[in-house]
Structure formats: C-alpha cells, structure tokens
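Q: How would the structure tokens look for this protein?
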Amino acid sequence: MSKRTVIASLALSAAALVGIALKEGYTDQAIIPVPGDVPTLGFGTTDGVKMGDRTTPPQALARKLSDVQKFEGAIRQCVRVPLHQHEYDAYVSLAYNIGSSAFCTSTLVRLLNQEQYEDACRQILRWDRFKGQPLRGLTIRRQSEFSQCMGEGARP
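A: Here is the predicted structure in token form.
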C-alpha cells in the first residue's frame, strides 16, 4: 500500500464528492429529512437553509463543493497525522454529515492523532444514530464510509 500523505496536500477526490452527493440525495426545495432534523436543501446543505428555500442542480452542486471545502478546512485543523486518500475521503464524508465540531472533538480524531488508524476507522460505525436512535440509512452510510476508510475498494 502507498505511503500516507501529509493532510495539507490532500483534497477530496472527485469520486468521493460524487459519493457524498449520492449519499445525501437531492431535493430542489428545503425539507426536513427526518422528524426533528434541520431543513436540508440540494445535496444535503443545511447551513442557512430555511423552509421554503429552493435550488437548482447547478446551484446545489456549487453549494456542495463550497460546503465540502469548509469541512476539509476544519479537518485540516484537527487532524495532525498523514492519511491515505481513501481515509481522507471517508473522514470528509463523515464530517460533512455530523459537523466539524462533532468530528474534531470525537474519540475518532483522538485515536487518529495517536496514529491508531484502524481503531479510528472503526469509530465511524458509532455515528449511526439520530437523537439516540439508530437510523438504517445512517448505518448503511457508516458501513460504506468504514469500508472506504479501511481501503476496501476505496468506495466513495
């Protein structure tokens, strides 16, 4: 397997960006994806979204790229060890879904920064709940991110 790369020189792969968009799904109008959640628009955008907002696919893709770049910046601030591209892609997908603060303050990042790479990847599986209840969609997404993190087919 190739050597890990300093995180500052990594960028989300195109396949991973498409993977995040597919996992999030698309909606042209703001929705509440599950009861108790926040309004979501486009390909999973939540920042500044309010019910009644609308978008187009080109606008949603542009916003997705902008949103992902913010999460990449946050990850660069809290992860201090080199990563493989597939690990980086998996962690950006996770952070995009759970938020930068939750990601950066997680046990996952603590383990990662101790170079406990496999244990850090396993932590992804713990993030399959919403308001304390497991959600099938999150479980499926976390299993995919875990497999990607472990380099199993490097799936987005």
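The chain has a mean pLDDT of 92.

The chain has seven helices and four strands.

Upvote if useful.
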